[in-house]
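Example 3.2
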Amino acid sequence: MTATESVKTLENRVIEPLRSRGWYAWWALRETRGSDEGLQSDASTVQSAPRGGLGELRAQAPFDQTEVAVWQIVLTTLGGGVGSGFLLAGGFTIFSAGPGGALVAFGISVAMLFAVMTSLIEVREAMGEAGPYYMLAVRVLGAAVGAAIAWNFWLLWVSIAAYEVVAVGYIVRFWAPHVHPAVWGPVALVCCAGVAAGNSRWYARAEHAFSVLRLGAVLALVVVGALVASGRVGGHAYGTENWRHGEAPFVGGVVGIIAATVYSNFSVVGVEAAAAMAVKSRKATRVVPVAVCGTLAVVFLSSVLVVGLVVPYDSGWFRTGEVGDSAASSVFTFITEQARMYAAAHVVNVLLLASALFDCCASLYVAAALLGDLATRALAPQWVRGHPARSLAACTALALAGWGLGCINPEYALAILAGAIGVGGSITWCTIAYMHCSLRWSRRLKEKRSSAVHYRAPLFPLGPLLCLAYLPATLTTLVVLAVWAGFSAQLFLFATAQLFVFLILVAAAAIAQRFGFCCCS
């Protein structure tokens, strides 16, 4: 693949498929034991276990110390990992890197996820305090950087909500092609805000059930794909012909694999929050990372292997038409069509629509909780402190603004939002990895290691170092490709927009700290 083709591939195929990344924030939902404790505005609730809706959110409630059942953590997290982002963009890893490169990309993503989860568990135990991870960053990296990381984390969830309301329009267009996609966005946003504002006990149960259904549906699609690849269904035995076609199995070499990890990471970034829930139970700290990452590895690798056997990396399925967010863009739809199961496309689209709505509800819920916590720490306007409805309204308004920008200038707005999600998530991973390395190598931790730290991350130091190297390697590759053969503004904005925003946040936080306008408490 030439440099010009690489730029064209990344510009057209990196930005659009990422609109429907499959992060799931409802790992934060579960049923508490005993009385109805509700959701606290402390952002640690994002990493713990609220039961009540936003109306029960309390400004200064203590950190919930109720242990979460291991099966609830694993099930809800798996449902978030195997989401619309994987169903849509998973196949484009093959387009970017070939079938072999796609397997390597997902392997790297799952390995980094395991490293981040285990690092977060050890950091939480070593620092011996409950609270959101960015408050740990304040102690390790300083107040200014910690405040910037906190705001970056909040913007991450607002960007997800904005993305999902745009995605809903394209998903519904699969059934109503003559209706403009922009019509459905505000309707979906209002409905999701209403769900986030209400009692969420029923939502937690629905999320558990939907996670089981989604995992079952993906595994069923894998079985169908295996039957198609073997020739038992569809009448053609593919064998390994697509692995020997053209430049396969590794297309584009290292650059192609790095580009493919942009897709694969969208399915796993955010899943690391399960580690913060698991830290309350010593059993969960050892079971959850292995169970989550092991299951995701089996699902992802088996799915990509089957798709790579059936769909060639240069298939017209990737090249013809505009890449959207409906089942028409999913390679699983292609496989079901090869199996002559034409009605299955509607099933895939239902899964995508439900995933987008769940993601939007969860993102608004989490963003509102984070904003309330930032206000209690003097990092956000005080008019939202103790007023969850105001926090939700502010997050909804900002998400609606992002949707509006997407309607006015979708190309550049979506590039910026995609970068906010992708780069913002990578900044989170790098922060956790750096804190882990700093604490493990500090003299204070060495002195306390025998008594205070009961958990040791098994991949240290290779895992954290891999996470620290990933972000600069990816950004450098994307920026070079953006300017290599004709300047690509979309790709350049995707790679750099959120990084510039983060640097501005650091500078603003440093100035505010210097003049006493805000403090971290």
